[in-house]
Amino acid sequence: MAAAAADGEAIEGPTNPMVTPLLTDLYQFTMAYAYWKAGKHQERAVFDLFFRRNPFGGEYTIFAGVEECIRLIANFKLTEEDIFFLRSSLPGKCEDGFFDYLRGIDCSDVEVYSITEGSVVFPKVPLLRVEGPVAVVQLLETPFVNLVNYASLVATNAARHRFVAGKSKALLEFGLRRAQGPDGGISASKYCYLGGFDATSNVAAGKLFGIPLRGTHSHAFVSSYMSPDEIIDKALPYSDGSGICEDFVSLVRTWLRKIQLTDSLQNSFVETNQSELGAFISYALAFPNNFLALVDTYDVTRSGIPNFCAVALALSDLGYKAGGIRLDSGDLAYLSCEARKFFCAIEKEFRVPGFGKMTITASNDLNEETLDALNKQGHEVDAFGIGTYLVTCFAQAALGCVFKLVEINNQPRIKLSEDVSKVSIPCKKRCYRLYGREGYPLVDIMTGENESPPKVAERILCRHPFNESKRAYVVPQQVEELLKCYWPGDSGKKAVELPSLKVTRERCIQQLSQMRPDHMRRLNPTPYKVSVSAKLYDFIHFLWLNEAPVGELH
């Protein structure tokens, strides 16, 4: 039975039905048995979920995936079928009492504190703090890391593409066919939208999440026609219903001849491909209000664009407005500029207002680098359809989230390593973002749970967690506490309501706009500062020395 949200409504299960208590690593169950057998399974533990390095060579990350984590724990229950499978899969012979314990497990004694989904986040700062019986929280480790890792990675990838493309361009996610399986496709569509994309081609994601859908036709549709003579039903009503054009094909051919005879366009083309023309006419008859044509099946400038313009002008005669073209190959900068010139010439020659501003969409294995190159070359593209490099996160395979024990039975714990970047920051913490006079975030600071929070206009010492010489005083003009309670369990605390995807997307866009430009740039971005309070710094190093074995030289 699903648990209730803050407003009393039941929280639905995870979007992907494969996300169940069994979606975890075997060692989580073997540890749970060992905890149970030792009588430690109910000990109160605190774990932090965080990452150590920003992806894609950048200096920021977009946090995503917490909604799916809450959906999981709200419906966390092992079935009899699950327990039967575990009984046969765990090594050795586990006592029957352990399986009785598993039958009774839920997340009513778990608390989850999280940074708001869609926030800009940084290494070392806990994205999630999970508190509860150690055996239960350990079972949540793998699914939580799984649900946050890819979601945050692809949302960050989307945000980076948006940053390069600019605010004025439409970004369309076209990655379903190249994604890593159905779940990769669905998740990519959701989190690319969160990261700033405007629409998706993925129909299932449109239904599930309310993401706007976009799409036209493929090269196969164009090449499936031989000529306009194949079209049987040639009639098309006027857009206002005032009459019917009985032969739309003839109207298009008339316009094509006019274009061919136009002095300013005479050197652009001679004869266009008639199979392409037939396909365009057929598509326009089916979707007169949404006619957007793929123009590179044969030749963009000598066939695709003139054929499109003939159909678009015929539609205009009947009161419709064509949507534009899509370029899927070739020199996109050059071809988009040539298309724009052609459209402007048509507008001037035939006095069709707005024709010169016809939308030009580009696709064809685009990524951050190609968008940047197009910007430097100069182009006339209005919208970009991006797939493979976006949804597969081709530039980086994983974010590298980790889930570390920081406290058990009120005793802080630390994980040590010869690699300082892998030393964990112990104890239950509170996390704050400190803002400067210009409204930009200056630094994130972690403090012990019982420390006084930073105050506006009061100086606070911010220290690098591990580097003694890196420290600075900050006088914040605004203080934001980052971790909020999203799952109170039976603690009686008030939970923050999960926002809609649209609200989360708006938060992401707003958060990115608040960041200082030098943190955001693609080349040599300035690292954002993550710090700890002076008290927490001293405690980290006290615990480090206390836990590290002392060597002996012979």
Under CATH at level 1, the class of the largest domain stands as: Alpha Beta
Number of helices: 17
Extended strand count: 22
Distance between the termini: 63 Å
* Rg from alpha-carbon coordinates: 29 Å
CATH architecture of the largest domain: Alpha-Beta Barrel
Major pleated sheet: 6 strands, antiparallel
Strand content: 15-25%
Mean of pLDDT: 95
Secondary-structure-based class equals: alpha/beta
| Domain module tally | 2
**If you consult CATH, what is the topology of the largest domain?**
nicotinate phosphoribosyltransferase
CATH homologous superfamily assignment of the largest domain: nicotinate phosphoribosyltransferase
Report strand order across the widest sheet.
15-14-1-5-3-21
The poorly predicted ranges are none
Q: Roughly how much helix do the residues carry, as a percent range?
A: 25-40%
- The 3D shape can be described as elongated
How are the SSEs ordered, and which strands pair?
Layout lengths: L25 H12 L6 E7 L10 E2 L3 H9 L5 H10 L6 H9 L6 E4 L5 E2 L6 E6 H32 L4 E4 L7 H14 L4 E2 L2 H7 L9 H5 L12 E2 L6 E2 L2 H14 L12 H13 L5 E3 L5 H18 L6 E4 L4 H19 L8 E4 L5 H10 L5 E4 L1 H4 L10 E7 L2 E2 L16 E7 L5 E8 L11 E4 L7 E4 L3 E4 L2 E4 L13 H14 L2 H4 L8 E5 H14 L7
Parallel strand pairs: 6-7, 6-13, 10-11, 11-12, 12-13, 17-22
Antiparallel strand pairs: 1-5, 1-14, 2-4, 3-5, 3-21, 8-9, 14-15, 16-17, 16-20, 18-19, 18-22
Helix pairs in contact: 1-5, 2-5, 5-6, 5-13, 9-11, 10-11, 11-12
EC number: 6.3.4.21
Pfam family, one: NAPRTase_N
Family: Belongs to the NAPRTase family.
